[in-house]
């Protein structure tokens, strides 16, 4: 809901015509700034479908004003000439817009074509500018029918020197200054084996930037889907502190970060997220673009992928190999070779002649799933039903002359479905029906690859910018949205296939703001090198802060052959990240987890099993991501926002609020220095309690994972072959006490696969509390109704200082029962054993 909005006209330095400025305050401490031509020659592109709802405007005109915000300590100072906005909180400027005067807005112009070239009425006087209307890239030319249309605006963040976000780049967590001319680029591209420590855009783009300092976090969401460049400059700025007498005024030096956004086309549509806390920013961004879809539980298990598993016998052999080596897994994946000549929604008749048997006889029996690849390019072949239907209905992207755009990709000559067209998305979703997708079953899910879109032999391996989409919009306007729309259509297809009952699973390589609503993403074609393991941590943290919690990196590296130590360390890291998939290129040696010797197999098995035992905690984290937009994997500073030492940490991270994880990302490491934040914090392992910087000797067997004092983590006591076979396995609760000898935690339960949690409220949310030697389980959401036979079988309490004399359990409507326990005085751990406490009912444990 909009609280207030102001409109006025202004002229920018380069503008021939006035611009319409619209500033509004949105409920939830968000401001929106829109700038467009007052009377454009033709409409300019405004990004649709990303915002989950459009706020209703309540008009309030002004030319120059001070706007008092909902929080009366906050004011917005707006001037039209010169154009500037300042946001002031308690007398201090937090951010300002156009303070460097970099507002830029190129107006659309009429044009006519003459003799094969482009001529304009507006530019006849300045023939040198005609190069801006038509650019040459080798044999390709990019014609801008209405001339250059770029836009730009600067923001100054006062008092901030730590900024984050704007994925996707293979770069550090902290954004770097770009004064060397090397700017951050947001332009989705197929980059095979991308360079580490590069600001070049790769597969996805989320134009969300976060700034943080002790006491405040702010965000800028630049809603534009064309090619976008971001310049960042942090400097020291002088601030004058006002006084009653000018001669006694004082000065102080504060950091200031200037951020300049530049996009090739569209309008300026920016949301300023005012926090003030990190979790407020995540919630504000989710209010605009939606929260992470709640994934089906199987998709949080381990995924085994390769380009390509050769045939049905190969799939059956790999599946059996996991059982033979006692390694759980949930999903096996098929890459492009499973199709009939790279025709998606088909099967290679020689190698996958009986896909229904493969799914029902091999995978379904063990409650496992299959994921197949579905790329957006469609092989030009009149006998291929998908192609002929799309061709007949006009569903392909067009070239500037109105013919179907054609480019080279895996199948050879291909056309590209225009997913920006709602009718195309509807039709595409229908292709997942069992009657249409022969050989598919309810356990088949989807992988959208190559959807930047990738066009071999194209400029930068992508579609020409003057290709034409639905609504006559050029590709330059919608480029970063293309993969977003394919994933949207794919998710809808899987939901529709089940009659609206089942949650989908869709992995996409290309993504944009809001992609979290439709599934998972990954970091693309990484290499089997240590630096790619190391950079994957800040890459995933950055994607997570941009709203997409379900993210991961290919374990082992997609390109090349990992040495055994690297592969083991990557499994240990991946097991503690949201999306967990091993994947490899067709030119690599086979690398199923049991192919590297008995000792390495044992360590990898343990890492994967630890993942499976941790699934109750992970699932609860995903529920919180879905409900309140908390990232599953988060930078340390998000949990410790007042501690300056945490602001640049990227070699360790928090998994939820309870686990501190330090992946080992370098070879032959025998010890690591783990930073343990918080002077009042306690971090616990089963061995000890740690505070501040701690030196931890390592073995090859594991990596440092510590539980934060004050938390409760639910675990499974044993592991099955797949997640669905673990539904009734009992729970263990691991309780780590803080300095006040208290702890809290949650457990979320539903059926793990359907939308009944949403539509019929069939879920359980339990809250565990330890305080003053009383440990209780209570319902945390009375709306949820879900029945389970599952019980808590064991509870470990870390940090109990004295051996109890007795422990009793009180179950509602029942008698008190004595509880068996053991106590280890050396490590202050109390273990409560042989419990049978149903997780769906209230109970209390008294420790005396």
From TrEMBL:
<keyword id="KW-0378">Hydrolase</keyword>
<dbReference type="InterPro" id="IPR000322">
    <property type="entry name" value="Glyco_hydro_31_TIM"/>
</dbReference>
<feature type="domain" description="Glycosyl hydrolase family 31 C-terminal">
    <location>
        <begin position="630"/>
        <end position="713"/>
    </location>
</feature>
<dbReference type="Pfam" id="PF01055">
    <property type="entry name" value="Glyco_hydro_31_2nd"/>
</dbReference>
<feature type="domain" description="Glycoside hydrolase family 31 TIM barrel">
    <location>
        <begin position="293"/>
        <end position="621"/>
    </location>
</feature>
<dbReference type="InterPro" id="IPR017853">
    <property type="entry name" value="GH"/>
</dbReference>
<protein>
    <submittedName>
        <fullName>Glucosidase alpha, neutral C</fullName>
    </submittedName>
</protein>
<dbReference type="Pfam" id="PF21365">
    <property type="entry name" value="Glyco_hydro_31_3rd"/>
</dbReference>
<dbReference type="InterPro" id="IPR025887">
    <property type="entry name" value="Glyco_hydro_31_N_dom"/>
</dbReference>
<feature type="domain" description="Glycoside hydrolase family 31 N-terminal">
    <location>
        <begin position="21"/>
        <end position="230"/>
    </location>
</feature>
<dbReference type="InterPro" id="IPR048395">
    <property type="entry name" value="Glyco_hydro_31_C"/>
</dbReference>
<keyword id="KW-0326">Glycosidase</keyword>
<dbReference type="GO" id="GO:0030246">
    <property type="term" value="F:carbohydrate binding"/>
</dbReference>
<dbReference type="GO" id="GO:0005975">
    <property type="term" value="P:carbohydrate metabolic process"/>
</dbReference>
<dbReference type="Pfam" id="PF13802">
    <property type="entry name" value="Gal_mutarotas_2"/>
</dbReference>
<dbReference type="GO" id="GO:0004558">
    <property type="term" value="F:alpha-1,4-glucosidase activity"/>
</dbReference>
<dbReference type="InterPro" id="IPR011013">
    <property type="entry name" value="Gal_mutarotase_sf_dom"/>
</dbReference>
<comment type="similarity">
    <text>Belongs to the glycosyl hydrolase 31 family.</text>
</comment>
<dbReference type="InterPro" id="IPR013780">
    <property type="entry name" value="Glyco_hydro_b"/>
</dbReference>
<dbReference type="GO" id="GO:0006491">
    <property type="term" value="P:N-glycan processing"/>
</dbReference>
């Amino acid at each position: 809901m909009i609280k207030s909005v102001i409109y006025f006209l202004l002229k920018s330095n380069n503008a021939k015509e006035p611009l319409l400025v619209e500033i509004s305050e949105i409920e939830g401490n968000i401001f929106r700034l829109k700038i467009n031509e007052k009377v454009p020659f033709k409409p300019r592109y405004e990004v649709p479908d990303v915002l989950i709802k459009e706020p209703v405007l309540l008009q309030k005109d002004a030319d120059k004003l001070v706007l008092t915000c909902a929080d009366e300590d906050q004011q917005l100072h707006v001037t039209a000439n010169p154009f500037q906005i300042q946001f002031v909180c308690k007398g201090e400027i937090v951010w300002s817009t156009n303070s460097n005067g970099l507002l830029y807005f190129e107006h659309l112009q009429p044009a006519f074509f003459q003799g094969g070239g482009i001529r304009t009425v507006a530019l006849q006087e300045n023939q040198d500018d005609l190069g801006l209307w038509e650019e040459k890239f080798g044999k390709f030319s990019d014609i801008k029918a209405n001339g250059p249309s770029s836009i730009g605006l600067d923001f100054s963040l006062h008092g901030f020197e730590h900024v984050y976000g704007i994925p996707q780049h293979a770069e550090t967590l902290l954004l770097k200054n770009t004064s060397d001319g090397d700017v951050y680029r947001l332009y989705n591209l197929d980059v095979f084996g991308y360079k580490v420590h590069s600001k070049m855009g790769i597969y996805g783009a989320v134009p969300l930037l976060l700034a943080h300092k002790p006491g405040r976090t702010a965000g800028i969401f630049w809603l534009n889907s064309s090619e976008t460049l971001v310049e960042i400059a942090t400097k020291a700025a002088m601030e004058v502190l006002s006084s009653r007498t000018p001669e006694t005024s004082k000065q102080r030096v504060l950091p200031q970060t200037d951020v300049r956004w530049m996009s090739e086309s569209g309008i300026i549509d920016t949301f300023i997220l005012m926090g003030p806390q990190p979790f407020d920013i995540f919630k504000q961004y989710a209010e605009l673009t939606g929260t992470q879809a709640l994934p089906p539980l199987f998709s949080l298990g381990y995924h085994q992928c390769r380009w390509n598993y050769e045939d049905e016998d190969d799939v059956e052999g790999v599946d059996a190999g996991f059982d033979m080596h006692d390694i759980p897994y949930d999903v096996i994946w098929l890459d492009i070779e499973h199709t009939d000549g790279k025709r998606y929604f088909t099967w290679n008749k020689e190698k996958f002649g009986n896909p229904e048997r493969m799914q029902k006889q091999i995978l379904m029996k063990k409650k496992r799933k299959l994921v197949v690849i579905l790329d957006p390019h469609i092989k030009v072949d009149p006998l291929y039903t998908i192609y002929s239907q799309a061709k007949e209905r006009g569903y392909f992207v067009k070239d500037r002359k109105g013919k179907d755009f054609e480019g080279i990709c895996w199948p050879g000559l291909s056309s590209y479905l225009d997913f920006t067209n709602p009718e195309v998305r509807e039709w595409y979703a229908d292709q997942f029906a069992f009657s249409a997708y022969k050989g598919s079953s309810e356990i088949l899910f989807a992988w959208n690859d190559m959807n930047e879109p990738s066009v071999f032999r194209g400029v930068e391996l992508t579609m020409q910018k003057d290709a034409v989409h639905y609504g006559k919009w050029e590709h330059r306007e919608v480029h970063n949205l293309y993969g977003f729309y394919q994933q949207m259509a794919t998710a809808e297809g899987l939901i529709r296939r089940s009659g609206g009952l089942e949650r989908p699973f869709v992995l996409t390589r290309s993504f944009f703001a809001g992609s979290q609503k439709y599934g998972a993403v990954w970091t693309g074609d990484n290499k089997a090198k240590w630096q790619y393991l190391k950079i994957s941590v800040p890459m995933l943290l950055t994607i997570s802060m941009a709203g997409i919690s379900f993210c991961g990196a290919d374990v082992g590296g997609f390109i090349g052959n990992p040495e055994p130590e690297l592969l083991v360390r990557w499994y240990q890291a991946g097991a503690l990240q949201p999306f967990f998939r091993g994947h490899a290129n067709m030119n690599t040696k086979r690398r199923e987890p049991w192919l590297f010797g008995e000792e390495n197999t044992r360590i990898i098995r343990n890492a994967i099993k630890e993942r499976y035992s941790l699934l109750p905690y992970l699932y609860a984290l995903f529920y919180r991501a879905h409900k309140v937009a908390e990232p599953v994997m988060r930078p340390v500073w998000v949990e410790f926002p007042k501690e300056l030492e945490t602001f640049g940490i990227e070699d360790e991270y928090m998994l939820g609020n309870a686990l501190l994880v330090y992946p080992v990302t370098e070879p032959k490491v025998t010890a690591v220095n783990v930073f343990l934040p918080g002077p009042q914090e306690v971090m616990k392992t089963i061995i000890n309690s740690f505070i501040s910087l701690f030196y931890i000797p390592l073995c090859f067997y594991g990596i440092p994972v510590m539980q934060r004092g004050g938390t409760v983590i639910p675990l499974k006591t044993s592991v099955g072959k797949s997640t669905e076979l673990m539904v009734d396995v009992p729970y263990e609760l691991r309780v780590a006490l803080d300095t006040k000898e208290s702890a809290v935690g949650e457990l979320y339960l539903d059926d793990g696969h359907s939308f009944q949690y949403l539509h019929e409220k069939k879920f359980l949310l339990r809250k565990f509390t330890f305080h003053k030697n009383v440990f209780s389980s209570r319902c945390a959401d009375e709306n949820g109704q879900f029945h389970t036979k599952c019980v808590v079988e064991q509870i470990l309490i870390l940090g109990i200082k004295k051996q109890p004399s007795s422990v009793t359990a009180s179950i509602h409507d029942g008698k008190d029962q004595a509880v068996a326990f053991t106590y280890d005085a050396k490590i202050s751990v109390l273990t409560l054993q042989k419990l049978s406490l149903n997780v769906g009912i209230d109970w209390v444990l008294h420790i005396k």
